[in-house]
Amino acid sequence: MPIQLPSSQSSVKLRNISQSDPPVCLAQTGVGRRIAKYAKSEIIFSQAAVADSVFYVLEGTVILRVVSSWGKEAIVAILGAGDFFGEGCLSGQPLRTSTAEAMTECSLVRLEKLSAIRLIRDEPTVSELLLHNLLSRKMKMEEDLVDQLFNTSERRLARLLIQLGKIDEQNKPEAVIPKINQETLAEIVGTTRSRVSFFMNKFRRLGLIDYLDHTDVLTVRRTLLNVVLHDQATSPLPGFVGTRTAAGATVRSSAGQLSM
Q1: In whole angstroms, what separates CA 147 from the centre of its chain?
Q2: In this structure, which of 76, 92, 161, 229 has its CB flanked by the most CB atoms within 10 Å?
Q3: Per residue in 160-184, pLDDT tens?
Q4: Helix H or strand E encompassing 59
Q5: DSSP assignments along 136-160, one per residue
Q6: Global pTM?
């Protein structure tokens, strides 16, 4: 049964809103959906809990963690405004495969499974938004794999900061993102905290990032894209050289400054 609205006029109004701005439609309260607020570090759902709802991020940042059966923990995603998560329940997933935690104060839309299915069926723009989100995440996962296999930890860190600020997507000169502790960055990048500290200090000296004094935020500038997008054989950072292998990957050395 479709989500019940007071009148047919309300239904038309909601549909017109959703066609122009899917997040507005998602933010409407109704049967099986509500706005949920979470404080920083609050658990949204836990791994192995019943998968019965889908979430859409209106504001804030959410981190997804996975713990193996032998206790090893890994961060699998950091999500921001405009992202869905928990959508595995739509494909019949009975239990959560990760733990979702509010990295900052968050405002989320929580859609119960049946409500989400109805909304996807009845609102084509919401269906398109979810499809775009899933395809984008799939592409990012493939890029992350290539990144992990072929790039240095410095470039992986630079790419992560660019992604968190969504600078490449929104074509803006700089972005302000929540400050992330270096242990978390090291875990995502796959290196040590000391290496992350070294690279972050280097980015700051080069004017690529900046910490806002007495705040919990970090400014990331678009010039950091040079580290990610430009082949370092032709546009290296100070002290770097690059060569291209037959497989097409760029291998770099730096007089002892960098390691994979």
Answers
A1: 16
A2: 161
A3: 898 888 887 767 788 888 878 888 8
A4: strand 53-59
A5: HHHHHHHHHHHHHHHS-HHHHHHHH
A6: 0.69
